[in-house]
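subagent[fold] <- orchestrator: predict structure for attached chain, return tokens only, no commentary.
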Amino acid sequence: MCQTVLRLLIAAFILGALSAADTRTVAEAAKQIDAQLDAMKDIQGEAEITSAANALERDLDVLREKSIMLLGERKMRWDAVNVQLDLALHSWKEAASVEDRSKAFAALRKAWAALKLQYPSEALGVMPRLWSCPMHPELLETSPGNCPICGMSLEPVYETQPQLTSDPIIRAEIVAPEPLVVGKTAHLRIRLTFVADGTPVALADLEETHTKKIHLLIIEPTETDYHHEHPEPVGNGEYAFSFTPERPGTYRLWADLKPVKTHVQQFSIADIPASTHGGALQRDEPENRHAEINGYKFDLSFADAMVQEKATVPGKLRVTDPSGKPCDKLDVIMGSFGHFVGFGDDFSTVLHIHPLGAVPRDNQAHGGPELPFYFRSNSPGEVRLFTQVKIGGRDYFPRFVVKVQPLRHLAE
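subagent[fold] -> orchestrator:
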């Protein structure tokens, strides 16, 4: 018994020393909690119970601080299980009899097992202390934070992950009853299958990013008519969606996905056939950093006067309402106050950028008038950059043209 108490006191001392700057991974913190629970099973005596409960509370705090980004329903489940865990620990600590303590300990074990189920299995294995961006997997950092390229939260790199790669492991195919017709709503399906064996991709095979498991980024060759859709499952790896094309020609779709197998975000590309030929992309389109829709003005600016390829540049979108006042009424959309999607003039490169700042916890909150972000293009040329914001329940998609200069400009 004395040895058990001594181990708990030593663990409490170590945790206190590390609380200011704890370097453990999620996996290491979880293993410590497993060990704490094993040691608590047969503890008796008020002092020992109090010490063990306090040590476990500190371990749980460490784990919660290191939790990977969770959104939507998964975040709500994580929150609910944490409440159950805290209640069970309190009941165990305050139990008036051996029988009550035994029941409370069983509830504590059950809640802890339920909490671990909210994490990807790899997260509870041995992990290197590296973090990367889902949208920029070539980036590796030794500590958590925000991606310097797009501003997204960095996520831990799992040791079991085969490699950090942009090569998609999921194939996308469009199922269309008829070709697209301008002005006519098209009701379509996207079929998702794994490249390796052709098996269908279910929602359970995908992780949630920005409140959705599937984002469809759709545009035609002139890069003018942009649509952002979220399909619904209809069975056997197929997902239904609809949109109304405003221009002739074949539309291209980028399915933004994050497979559970890799935990790395990827794009799967598919074309949607049309009944007519479309126009061509306007080369050397003049730069445009201003847009106006229904009296709302959208102004884009960058910290650097000239945007260079492969350079990360702070940017900012400012919104002004029809009365000329700064607009601070931006609604929450997909867990943020806005989203940026850019298309390169090669019609294959996509930039998916999210604004900086904390994720709004209240869906009724409002933001603005400015949305800061980081911009980076690895290639020179024109980028057609669309912002998606919602004001008064209505979506707005202002379009900008950003000139990205080649590196040789630096020497001229």
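orchestrator: received. Logging for downstream: Residues 72-94 form the longest helix (23 residues). Residues 170-272 form a domain with the Immunoglobulin-like fold (CATH 2.60.40.1930).
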